[in-house]
Amino acid sequence: MIITLVKKQTGHEFIREMEETYNSISELEKLFERTNNMKMYVDLENWRYYRDNLDEEIELTESLVTNKLSLSDLDLIILNTIKHEKPRSIRDLANKINKDVSNVQPKVKRLEEEGFIKFEVGAKNSKIPYLTFDEIKLEI
Predict the structure, then answer these.
(1) Are 108 and 78 spatial neighbours (Cβ–Cβ below 8 Å)?
(2) 14-35: per-residue pLDDT in tens?
(3) CATH at residue 95
(4) Mean pLDDT across 3-9
(5) Which of 27, 48, 64 is the last residue of a domain?
(6) 31 and 84 inside one domain
(7) Is residue 136 assigned to a domain?
């Protein structure tokens, strides 16, 4: 089974992401000259293009190939709640779906390991879950 995670963003959002990663286009150019890293080359070419096309929509995809995927109803509820209700912590997520945090914690850890979600550090070292995509496409 192939699972494709789709993230949509504008050129402006892409540029902001590149600035967070590399600080400036000149910094990226220097890094690329030193390393000849192909990912940096692609980032640099895309940055050059999207700085002149800020409103253009970009669809970034990441594919996961697995025979072991098993998304339960609770997993889908968790993903949907994270996307639409933006919980401030795992405890807040558990409250929003009326489940005990001890039942939700292992689910979000597995979803993180499988690449569906990531965490930011919040207030008092809380883990704020967020999705790294806008859509999930399944190919069987």
Answers:
(1) yes
(2) 999 999 999 999 999 999 999 9
(3) 1.10.10.10
(4) 88
(5) 64
(6) no
(7) no
What pLDDT digit, counting tens, does each position of 108-135 carry? 999 998 888 999 998 888 899 999 888 8
Indicate the residue among 64, 82, 105 that finishes a domain. Answer: 64
Structure tokens at 82: 């994270």
- DSSP secondary structure letter of residue 123: G
Q: What is the pTM of this model?
A: 0.70
For 76, the token pair is: 């889908």
Domain that holds residue 97: 70-131
The per-residue b/e assignment along 91-108, b for 16 or more CB within 10 angstroms, e otherwise, is: ebbbebbeeeeeebeebb
